[in-house]
Amino acid sequence: MNEQLTILLVVVPLMIAPITALFKSHTISWILTAIVSFTSLILSFIILFDVIDGSHVIYELGGWRPPWGIEYKIDSLNAFIALIVSAIACLSTIFAWQSVPKEINENNYGLFYAALQLCLLGLLGIALTGDIFNLFVFLEISSLSSYALISMGRSRKALTAAFSYLILGTIGATFFLIGVGFLYAASGSLNIADIATRFSTFADMQLVMTGFIFILLGLGLKAAIFPMHSWLPNAYGHAPSVVSIFLSATATKVSIYVLIRVLFDLYPVAYWQALLLPQILLVLGCVGVIYGSFRAWQQVELKRLLAFSSVAQIGYIIIGISLLNNDGITASVMHLFNHALIKATLFMGAGIILYRTNTTKLSELRGFGGSMPWTFAAIVLAGLSLIGVPGTVGFVTKWYLLSGAIAQGKWIVVVAILAGSVLAIAYVWKIVEAMYFNSKRKMVIQNVKSGDINLAKAPISLSLALWIGAAGCLYFGLYTELPYQSAQSIATALLSSEVAQ
Amino acid sequence: MIPLTYWLMAAMLTPLLGALVISRLDKLPDYREAVTLVTASILFSINVYLFNHLDAASSAQFTIAEPIEGLAISFVLNQFGLMFALIASGLWIATSIYAIGYMRAHHEKNQTRFFTLFAVAIAGVMAVAFSENLFTLFIFYEFLTVSTYPLVTHAGTREAKRGGRKYILILMGTSILFFLPAMIWVYYLADTLTFTSGGILAGHADPKWVLPLLLMFILGISKAGVMPFHKWLPAAMVAPTPVSALLHAVAVVKAGVFSLVKVVVFIFGTDFITESGANKILLWFPIITIVLASLIALSKDNLKERLAYSTISQLSYIVLGALLATQQAVIGAGMHIAMHAFGKIALFFAAGAILVTMHKKLVSDLNGMGRAMPLTFTVFTIGTLSIIGIPLFGGMWSKWYLLSGALGFEQNAVLYWTVLGALTLSTLLNVYYLLSIPVRAFFFTNPSYTVIKEAPKACLIGMAIPTFVTLYLFFDPSIFYGLSLSLTGS
Q1: Which of A80, A368, A386, B412 would bridge with A435, disulfide CB 3.0–4.6 Å?
Q2: Is A412 on the interface with B (CB under 8 A)?
Q3: What is the mean pLDDT of chain B?
Q4: Complex confidence, ipTM
Q5: What percentage of chain A has pLDDT greater than the value 90?
Q6: Tens of pLDDT along A421-457?
Q7: Which of A384, A422, A437 is opposite residue B156, by nearest beta carbon?
Q8: Which of B158, B172, B177 to mutate to test the interface with A (most CBs of A within 10 A)?
Q9: Are B389 and B395 in contact (CB under 8 A)?
Q10: Is A398's Cβ below 8 Å from some Cβ in B?
């Protein structure tokens, strides 16, 4: 019966999104979105518990048998990514209830929520499908809707940010498509499993290698892997709060998921090991960690700071993948989850600040900690997780990542990870310092009508979403069973597929 | 009869609960401070109860979570930890009484936040003291750093901000740069991080790795103030005096040396360190710190900064004792945690009393002040004499064991004489830079100080407690001797 559930994950948002677009009322569109995201969450949970032991759920679209038809083959990695995406979607939806009416033009409520659902649909589709062309389609659905979502940001800079993201995102997607085309020309198949099993028969063709490089570059752009990250800070910095929360926690993660699939399940590990790719990725990851953290430290605006920190955090994930051992991959997969949680929480904090003060410039946030102690506490908690203070989610990842690097004897990587953490202290503390201390000047608050109640109290739905996230940072830092078991089962599966080939 | 485990839990929960209540009493300062005192007293009583039931210590153990497979956050009642807990909770009572007088007389703002976070920090200290393994200790080591940050920056001035930045960056930075990888490395080698008598590394690690690994711990546990990562402590002196007194002479810095002693004794094991010979090189760190910090203290005119550098120097006595790795020296190290705590807190209390009554921060302004504040300077004198290690004061005993431990160190003649030389030199410097203060105060004359004007009563009561304890400990150091004895495995 569970086979049908997998396709429901895609079908539910696909059906409801066009309906949502018809409505103008905020309440109705929100309720529809809430239905979609909570249904997805429940479905992902059910599926994950089915496959966490290492088994598969297979669904063939339209009853066509693979490799001709499209096949959904769900293992623990698919289900885990789907869970991350839908969980963050739920948080964003809760957050949206009071944030969207303030930030989005009232004529666009329906469109906004429809785009959000389509984006969710695209990301879930990527996570579930076992067909590489189908994957491209979903990638485009999610990308196109995210361009639209970003462009709905309040400042006009959102338009240029969305446009440059559109250009780079399209280049990335095109590269990916070209790569897939080459691979199809060589193999005659689009089914990931099918290509992988017959890989040795066409491995010598030049096309395969060219295709591989195109796919890699395309995904690198979409995942904002250093040095292809330039679109990210602007896009996340200027997007509406809800969109920043949702995309920062999921969009790059899903692209990294595709990268993992391509590296471990599409191409044999030995094939790209011969291309020195692990070493290249390792270096890119380390440089990304240092560079991203350093740039984050230089920022004077909260959302951009967080966006650059994302570049650094993606670096950690890349390092984990390129270590090619159990601990490293466990760390990477767990960090997909942990970082989604941390970054969503931090962007929610930034969203609340924006909601109340209409600014996220650090220099204008003096005294914020005193006037909103609870929001501030949640931000500090998530910030500490970002540093990797023990007892929080960030620490668990760092532990496995460092164990993986030490086990391989890669001391430079250890140094890079630690240096990144120290820089993280610096940039997180920049936020804390900016908000904690009072200044002689009063907090600068702009564009608020007199008697505006929003200034006095954080709206309940925003605080609720924020604290769910913050509590998650702490809870999953102490009780790691769910992400750890999933990551373990994924790492075992990925590494055993390497041995099998 | 309540099982001992619950008492152990209570030792950590009491200050947290206290903090919760305190934070709700912003409008009722009298009740708020009463709650602080009651919480401190309850906590001390719990620790005394635990002390009386030490014979069943190993049965008191509990785990709250296991975030990484094989590594649990768990706590156990242990003698050395209990010693630390007793000192910290006992002195918390004294500090609370003192703080009531100080904070009011000094018209500090945000007093509720101050008392709340103080209690939270004490909860962290209890957790560090009762950690069952290095992992748990590390967690609460960081917890202590973060929870004391708002206390350090309490004043909210630019200077406080700068001090706070240094504080967090050095303490947390070194712990992540060195402490964390060292811990993972140990776990990688020994497959456990549980504190075990005799250490866990012997037999699992090549002795040649002891040197880099222990070096990483010495650098990573920068709360112990070993140079070159000692700058956070003078930076933390921007905090209100009660914070400097309890946290930066007792709780936080002692958490540092406590962790280091734990690592040396229960992770490496003293025999393994002696066998590896790593301490021959590493001993230079505390030796240099002891001498250099004393010399810097000499040059500081700001009273609190001088005391801070004196603390840095004294902390390295403890590190030195641990690294000497002989029985007597380790006992001396353990006892010095206690003895230095009582002496130094008395000095800080006196410095705060001077600040709050006379508004003077500089040593050079203290000439003749002894006539106006005889009680304060008597306390200061007693604290000084105890730290120098003169008989009739508790500080003598720890120095006694440290010195006899150094005499028993027979690995290297040069080092042997250097250690003895450093200890002697620093004692002489102690006399010079600390004792000169009460001497100036009492024997110089200054026409502006003729009328007696002492600190608020609450401050005086708070100051009296550690002073009397220092005197008492000379005649009966058996409590702390007994608890330190656990470090030698007997």
Answers
A1: A368
A2: no
A3: 85
A4: 0.80
A5: 28
A6: 889 988 998 888 888 876 655 555 655 665 555 555 6
A7: A437
A8: B172
A9: yes
A10: yes
Contact A429 B65 (CB under 8 A): no
**B73 touching A (Cβ < 8 Å):** yes
Hey, are the CB atoms on A418 and B68 less than 8 Å from each other? no
Cβ <8 Å between B150 and A478: no
Radius of gyration of chain B (CA): 21
Measured torsion, CA atoms of residues B251, B253, B254, B259, in degrees rounded to the nearest 10 = 120
How far is Cα of residue A336 from the mean position of the Cα atoms in its chain? 7
3-state secondary structure (DSSP) of residue B433: helix
For residue A189, the one-letter residue type is: S
Q: Is B438 on the interface with A (CB under 8 A)?
A: no
- How far is residue A464's CA from residue A99's CA, in Å, rounded to a whole number? 12
Distance in angstroms (rounded) separating the CA atoms of residues A450 and B203: 72
Please report, as a single letter, which amino acid is at residue B263: V
As given in the structure block, the two tokens for residue B263 are 């690592």
- Cα-Cα-Cα-Cα torsion A21, A23, A27, A30, nearest 10 degrees, comes to -10
A368 touches B at CB < 8 Å: no
Q: Is A387 near chain B, with CB under 8 Å?
A: yes
Is A388 touching B (CB cutoff 8 A)? yes
Whether A491 has its CB under 8 Å from any CB of chain B: the answer is: no
Q: Which residues of A touch B67 (CB under 8 A)?
A: 391, 395-396, 477-480
Q: What is the DSSP string of B24-67?
A: T-TT-HHHHHHHHHHHHHHHHHHHHHHHHTGGGGGG-EEEEEEE
**What is the average pLDDT across A454-464?**
74
- HEC per residue, A425-457: HHHHHHHHHHHHCCCCCCCCCCCCCCCCHHHCC
Q: What are the domain boundaries of chain A?
A: 278-501
Regarding beta strands A71-74 and B61-68, do their DSSP bridges make them parallel or antiparallel, or are they unpaired? unpaired
Tell me whether residue B299 is exposed, middle or buried, using C-beta atoms within 10 angstroms of its C-beta: 0 to 12, 13 to 18, 19 or more.
Answer: exposed
CA–CA distances in Å: residue A233 to residues A44, A130, B246: 30, 31, 44
Does the beta-carbon distance from B180 to A403 stay under 8 Å? no
For residue A318, give how far its alpha carbon lies from the nearest alpha carbon of chain B (Å). 20
- Whether A119 and A149 have beta carbons less than 8 Å apart is answered as yes
Between CA A491 and CA A445 the distance in angstroms is: 49
User: How far apart are the C-alpha atoms of B252 and B149, rounded to whole Å?
Assistant: 11
